[in-house]
């Protein structure tokens, strides 16, 4: 499997080529080079996945963890070193497939979407950089390599959100995303350092004796790592950057802020899952509670947003909440007895990546046609954009959890895992799943049915996007339709042994009924061109509506904390200290020197013989001193 | 044979004559000559100590030759500077040198 290193080299080369020589190329050439390199990466990924799973299980009945490459990069002595390499195990191979598929679709789609934009070459260079970082993150052989690539994805996310760098909102959003995730990554870094200090290694499988002797430090380290994961995966209250990140180009939102980068936090928890189960089982329920609250919060906000990308962003936050919950409700390594959540989470990650990328790309196609993000500019688009309409509908049905689309299967596993944990958790998540179906169909009806903005459409008739954009939509729609039938448990499960997915009839019925009711409700409220019920509800609960529309003022709360408390009470005194005490000390010493120089200036009078007398006097004095001593 | 002390007395005399001349003369050229006197007195010391104390070695003599070479070079530089000063000020009085810094 030595060829897997190509997964990192190909995008790196493409990034360097496009980044350094891109401005000498025609935009189209740059786009084709980027896309071709992605085709290569996708082929290598699929080959890796095929070879890995075809090689079969070892004697213990699990897929072996392979390390085709592992170089010692920074040795710190006593066995502690930072290594770089490639590690293959079921979840990293699964992620390789997800990332390369979505990235390839986004590359093809962008050929049409960003056609004629300024900085087309730069865009493809950044996409390559992102792909390399994300692939490096999932194949990391140790926690520190993961951290390095973790920061690299943060950088490429920052660069791509700020792609339209002439737009102030985009600049603000990119800075916000970078600072919030960096803030969370501080927790991650401290967690890694504690982990490395107490276990003596950065690898994912430390010495058992070290782990036991570390005692309470391992839960602490794992909790801090979860903080980093929560920042990247937009868990409450660190979710504030993700909705704003929608200022970036829509394909970027599909790739980074829906399918791949934001699930890095889930991937991190899954990667550390054996340690969580064995050494920090008390942390896992908290992950579940945070995930559940985030899912509920984001679903509530998504119900009232008017910008279609914001709706999708909150939907993403909510779905990542589902994945976190699924990991958090696991209580053992055995998938038949409490460990189902791990498999459910990874399965949902896989299916969600596909249908959420499809939703975002569909939204991009719509925005491309009407040149606006607002629902008020849309409505009735089904007549103009048939392909986008059908694929978007498929994705909406999938996220709502309707049989036989992929979302149904993965969500059902998550709900089953939640019911195993506690009935309360199960019912809560079922209700949130119902809200998901409601807001997704609200979105669907407001875009494709509902009240048409006739004036706008008359002035500028929306038309179906070109084939480069609709082809990825169709491919992803096909994947969304069939992905549910992949025997996912055969490949990925908490302890690595084969798990045969079976649909729990009660859970499935409940979730299907809830989803159907929600869709019916959304149809009743939003499908027609007049929406009296929605308006009545909005006026009846105007306080709640306004609060939800303003995202329950979490952004304001953060602004208050940073601006009023941190900046005013901590930063300002520190700035004063720096300006007046630290700088003042050096200014004073400089002034003393200047003053002294002014005072002895008269000695430099260019009377050579006077200099000589001083010199002679000095010599005589020195001689006398030497003679006396 | 001349005693070593006589040479040293001579060189001391030359040395102080040089220092005296350097401080009292007002002309740059005579100041330069005074410097040469100081240097030569030192050269004599080197040669004399070598000759009387370590006759089987030659370091002192070589150092003398080396110092003569260096002082020749230094004299050349000094004279070049003095010529330039003369071109600018039409004299080589040392008290006029403080005008250089104002130009």
Short description:
The complex is a heterodimer of chains A (629) and B (103). With 629 residues, chain A is an all-alpha fold. Chain A is built from 26 helices and 2 strands.
Please explain how this structure is put together.
The complex is a heterodimer of chains A (629) and B (103). With 629 residues, chain A is mainly alpha-helical. Chain A is 72% helix and 3% strand. The longest helix of chain A has 46 residues, at 554-599. The N and C termini of chain A lie far apart (80 Å). By secondary structure, chain B is mainly α. Chain B has a single domain, classed as Helix Hairpins. Chain B has 3 helices and no strands. Chain B has helices at residues 4-24, 28-53, 59-89. In chain B, helix 2 (28-53) runs antiparallel to helix 3. Classes of the chains: A mainly alpha (629), B mainly alpha (103).
Question: Characteristics of this structure?
Answer:
heterodimer; A: 629 residues; mainly alpha; two-stranded antiparallel ribbon; 26 helices; B: 103 residues; elongated
Task: Detail the topology: elements first, then pairings.
The complex is a heterodimer of chains A (629) and B (103).
Chain A: H1 6-21, H2 27-54, E1 66-75, E2 81-88, H3 90-113, H4 120-138, H5 143-161, H6 168-199, H7 208-214, H8 217-232, H9 241-244, H10 250-259, H11 264-271, H12 273-279, H13 284-302, H14 308-328, H15 340-370, H16 386-400, H17 406-421, H18 423-448, H19 454-459, H20 467-482, H21 488-491, H22 505-526, H23 532-540, H24 542-549, H25 554-599, H26 608-628
Helix pairs in contact in A: 1-2, 1-4, 2-3, 2-4, 3-4, 3-10, 3-15, 3-20, 4-5, 5-6, 6-8, 8-11, 10-15, 13-14, 13-18, 14-15, 14-17, 14-18, 15-16, 15-17, 15-20, 16-18, 16-20, 17-18, 17-22, 18-22, 23-24
Chain B: H1 4-24, H2 28-53, H3 59-89
